[in-house]
Design brief:
- It is a single chain.
- By secondary structure, the chain is of the alpha/beta class.
- It contains 8 helices and 9 strands.
- The longest helix is centred in the middle third of the chain and has 29 residues.
Length: 253
């Protein structure tokens, strides 16, 4: 993976940040994108301080112009695009279907689903033009196949990534571009901590964690290892599929 180029969205924290750090540790040049510039610049400086190469760009994945510029930035900075990790996403607000506003529905879908569509559209254009193959990893959730009350906007946006990923894999795999979906379980990230604040520590400690076979939340670094593996030659025959690093959580529900 040395001297290849990876683009990671939602890279300012959590899984995205851990993935950028791991790619860099493998010798990959990284382009990190998110909406928060301060965190991105801090990450770039951290990577450079360790001898890596990195560049940041502020982007809102729900906006086509931002996504097009993001991919163009990667090509300008490093001359190629080999790997793309579409990690940007939001949980939105949880609400009964009768109370869920159309505006909130659109906000969640525009980032979690439309954003992945737009990213793959422009990432694929760059990879196809280079004719060097590549790998794209989309980030879903165990809620890509598990629903819960009040989660209709978030859950539907994550469910849809299964079909989107498999369809795009069918298009791109013949050109040497593999496309896969990673669906993490309970992972200790800023988003997860916000959700824990909503459900409360009692529910988390007494219900959620005991249903995980490993009896703990996962670490962002553990998910990063799955993502980087899927981009590596070690995963050369894996495409169009969903991998669920969740410590066994979904098997108990």
């Amino acid at each position: 993976m040395k001297n290849k180029v990876a683009l990671i969205t939602g890279a300012s924290s959590g899984i995205g940040k851990a993935t950028a750090e791991l790619f860099s540790a493998r010798g990959t040049n990284v382009v990190v994108a998110a909406r928060r510039s301060a965190e991105l610049e801090e990450l770039v400086e951290e990577i450079k301080s360790r001898g890596g190469k990195a560049s940041a760009i502020v982007a809102d994945v729900s906006k086509p112009s931002d996504v097009e510029q993001m991919v163009a930035h990667a090509l300008r900075e490093f001359g190629r695009l080999d790997f793309a990790v579409n990690n940007a996403g939001i949980e939105g607000s949880f609400s009964p279907i009768v109370d869920l506003s159309e505006e909130e529905w659109d906000r969640v879908q525009n980032i979690n689903l439309k954003g992945v569509f737009l990213c793959m559209k422009y990432q694929a254009k760059a990879m196809l033009a280079a004719k060097q193959g590549g790998a794209i990893v989309n980030i879903g959730s165990v809620n890509s196949f598990l629903g819960f009350p009040t989660g209709s906007a978030y859950v539907s946006s994550k469910h849809a990534l299964i079909g989107l990923t498999s369809s795009v894999s069918a298009e791109l795999a013949p050109e040497g571009i593999r496309v896969n979906l990673v669906c993490p379980g309970i992972i200790d990230t800023p988003m997860h901590r916000r959700l824990r604040g909503i459900v409360g520590d009692a529910v988390y400690d007494e219900y959620a964690i005991p249903t995980v076979h490993l009896r703990r939340a996962g670490r962002a670094e553990e998910i990063a290892k799955t993502i980087v593996f899927l981009c590596s030659e070690e995963a050369s025959y894996i495409t169009g599929t969903t991998i669920t690093p969740d410590g066994g959580f979904s098997l108990t529900l």
